[in-house]
Structures are given as C-alpha cells and as structure tokens.
Write a structure and sequence with these properties.
Distance between the termini: 58 Å
Number of helices: 1
Order of helices and strands: HEEEEEEEEE
Structural class: alpha+beta
CATH class: Mainly Beta
CATH superfamily: Immunoglobulins
Number of domains: 1
CATH topology: Immunoglobulin-like
Shape: elongated
Helix content: 10-25%
Length: about 160
C-alpha cells in the first residue's frame, strides 16, 4: 500500500512537470518573429548623389522560407537594378540585400518583405509559408539637400509594421 501512495504522488508531479514544459514550449514558439528587418541608408544626401540602401533580413523560424522584397516610394528612382529581389531566408543564413539609386528629391522609402510560395528559390524547394507574419514593412525618410520639392507621408518618420 505504501508503494502505491508513492507512485501516485510521483505520477502527479510528473504530470504537472510535463504540463509546465508543454506550455513553456508553446509560448517560446509564439515569441518568434517570422521576418525581422533592418533597413538602412544615409539619412541625408546631396541631390544627384548615389545612395545604397541595405535591407538585412533574419528569421528565428527553424524552417526556411521564400521571401520577396521590394522598395516602394512615391517617385521613380534612377537605378539600373530592379527594386525587387526574391531570396531564400533561413535562421542560420541571414540575408543582406542592396539597392543603389540616385537621390533626386526627399522621399519616404518603404521596404517590403513577403513570405511566399515559390519554387526554385530554396534548396530542394523545401520552404514554408507561415500563417502569421507573412508580411513586414519598414518606412524610412531620405532627406535630399538642395531639394526644392518636399514630400509628405501620412504617418510619422520611421516606423515598422508586421502582419
């Protein structure tokens, strides 16, 4: 009888420990960012100067994903490169993307990153499309000195949103 009481106490403790570990694992998985973005370029440049914009992409997900990126702004930019790139993003391989363009006027530039289902980008076509956090966007202002024209944006300065 004494051994039965010992087993029942031990099994209850084990069940509580398993429940705690299971809930802790689920919370850790929910805290992962799908697409982390750092968007950088000089804040102020002279009119006609070439600007290099850098977008650093990272993820904490264990699986790789195909990410389509693009730069948007209200004015056309003089560049010899496309303002869109598609890459394979994995947690052990962050990506740096670069765009070079001529700055003619002050503007807000948006960097977009979308997780998509596309073949031929990731090795062996092994990639996931997350249910949450498929899209991320960052806004940043580029101020051009000697710019006669001004720009406006509905929201303030530097911001970031993820959906």
């Amino acid at each position: 009888m004494l051994s039965f009481q010992f087993l029942s106490r031990a099994s209850a403790a084990i069940l509580i420990l398993l429940l705690y570990l299971h809930l802790g694992t689920n919370n850790a998985q929910n805290n992962q960012d799908t697409i982390e973005m750092e968007f950088s370029f000089p804040e102020t440049v002279d009119a006609g100067e070439e600007v290099t914009a850098k977008l650093n992409l990272k993820t904490q997900l264990k699986e790789c994903m195909v990410v389509k990126t693009r730069l948007n702004n209200p004015y056309p930019m003089d560049t010899s490169f496309t303002l869109r790139q598609t890459v394979c993003l994995c947690n052990d391989y962050p990506r740096n993307l670069y765009w070079d363009f001529i700055a003619e006027r002050t503007m807000y530039i948006e960097a977009h990153a979308d997780a998509v289902a596309e073949v031929g980008i990731c090795p062996e076509n092994k990639a996931v499309v997350p249910i949450v956090g498929q899209h991320n966007v960052v806004f940043k202002k580029l101020t051009v000195i000697d710019d006669e024209q001004s720009c406006s944006m509905p929201s303030s300065g530097l911001s970031s949103t993820a959906t």
